[in-house]
Amino acid sequence: MDIKQIQELIKFVSRSGVNEVAIEQKDFKITIKTNQAPTVINTTVPAQAPQVLAAAPAAQPAAVTNAAPVAEVDDSSKYITIKSPMIGTFYRSASPEKPSFANVGDEISVGKVICIIEAMKLFNEIESEVSGRIVKVLVDNSSPVEYDQPLFLVEPM
What we know:
Blueprint: H1 3-16, E1 20-24, E2 29-33, E3 40-44, E4 70-71, E5 80-83, E6 88-91, E7 107-108, E8 113-119, E9 122-127, E10 132-137, E11 143-145, E12 150-156
C-alpha cells in the first residue's frame, strides 16, 4: 500500500463517519481510528524491512477531509484554504528550472496540480479540490510543511 492509497483510505474513513478501520495484508497492518480524537495510523512492517509508512498528528472532525479546502473563520472568510494532506517538503514546481504550478492570480480548477509535497523520497502531486483564483501562497518553496497546514488561499469562482 503506497502513501496515496493511505491518504485515500484516510479520506474515506473521515467521510464515512466510522470510528475505526483495520486492514491486514501479508506484509503490513494499518489501523485508522477516528471519533473526535486524533487520527491514528498504526503500521507494522516485517522486522527485516522496518519503516514507518505514515503518521497523522492532527485531530479532525468527521466532516473535514485531509486535503479538503476549508473556509477560514477570520476576516478573510470569503477565501477557501487549501491545506497540506501530509507532512513533507513543499515545492511550487517540478524542478528549479520549471515554472511554478500555481502563482498568485492564477485561476485553478478541480484536479489541477498546484504543488508537490515530497514525503519519504516520494514526490506527491497535490491537486486542487476547488475552482477559483489563487489569492495568496502561504508557504515558501522548499519549506517543510505539517499535516493540515494551510498552503494556499483561493477566492472561489
